[in-house]
Amino acid sequence: MIIKTFQTRDDCARALSDDLGIALNAALAENEHASLALSGGRSPKTVLPNLASMPLRWSDVDVTLSDERCVLPSDKDSNAAMVHSSFLEQGAKDASFHPLWTEDVDIAGGLENAKSKLRIFPWPLDAIYLGMGEDGHFASLFPSDDISDFDNDDGPVVAGRAPSAPHQRISLSLSTILKTRHLFLHVTGSAKRETFDYARTITPTSQCPVSLLLNNAEIDLRVYLTD
């Protein structure tokens, strides 16, 4: 695990986007295509425009999400809408974007559709950009008493639901995330820093999902911290 700490959120976002670009460029130097999964939420809005402005072969990059709320693309909570406005429209319009959620289906149908969309991706993914919640969740893998909630034997996605939010969600599974070549974790704010520090000290547990990343020596994890 590599941990980088920054004085300002802008500096943190810039360094994160630069390192994401370097990872994608290296993947494109080795293969015809590269693959990337992006986080939703607020913090990516400070990262994705700079990443999109980089002179990469975006036409050879397949992009999806680490997770998505099951809402219409026009909904303010749609991660796909955020990717369009903060990333695709900021310079990465040639990238191939594959949203996880399909309208007008139930969660079972949504999971099947997401699995079908992701079949075109080369596995493992080259890079995943993750955020983290104050409860230690990442993607839509929220604290659980049963780690089996984080995986699906039939494919790379699972259903998720935030304890305090109404929307059903679709998330990349834990095993899919752990197999990724390069993981980038973005942690902002003092409350999240406290959770991060705590998670480093405990035995990995599904009750604090991020501990499953921080205490895993087999993954390439890069952490970007700022208050």
Q: Which terms would index this structure?
A:
three-stranded antiparallel β-sheet, 227 residues, seven-stranded parallel β-sheet, alpha/beta
- Biggest sheet strand line-up: 1-10-9-6-2-3-5
What fraction strand? Answer: 15-25%
How would you state the average pLDDT, rounded? 94
Query: What's the order of the H and E elements?
Result: EHEHEEHEHEEEHEHHE
Which regions contain 5 or more consecutive residues with pLDDT less than 50? Answer: none
Strands, count: 10
Rg on CA atoms, Å: 16 Å
Describe the fold and architecture.
- The two termini are 20 Å apart.
- Strand 7 (157-161) and strand 8 form a beta hairpin.
- The protein has 227 residues and is of the alpha/beta class.
- A seven-stranded parallel β-sheet has the order 1-10-9-6-2-3-5, sandwiched between helices. Strands 4-8-7 form a three-stranded antiparallel β-sheet.
- The chain is globular.
- It has helices at residues 9-30, 44-52, 79-86, 107-118, 174-178, 190-199, 211-214, and strands at residues 2-6, 34-38, 61-65, 67-69, 96-97, 127-131, 157-161, 168-172, 182-188, 221-226.
- The chain contains seven helices and ten strands.
Write the layout of secondary structure elements.
Layout: E1 2-6, H1 9-30, E2 34-38, H2 44-52, E3 61-65, E4 67-69, H3 79-86, E5 96-97, H4 107-118, E6 127-131, E7 157-161, E8 168-172, H5 174-178, E9 182-188, H6 190-199, H7 211-214, E10 221-226
Parallel strand pairs: 1-10, 2-3, 2-6, 3-5, 6-9, 9-10
Antiparallel strand pairs: 4-8, 7-8
Helix pairs in contact: 1-2
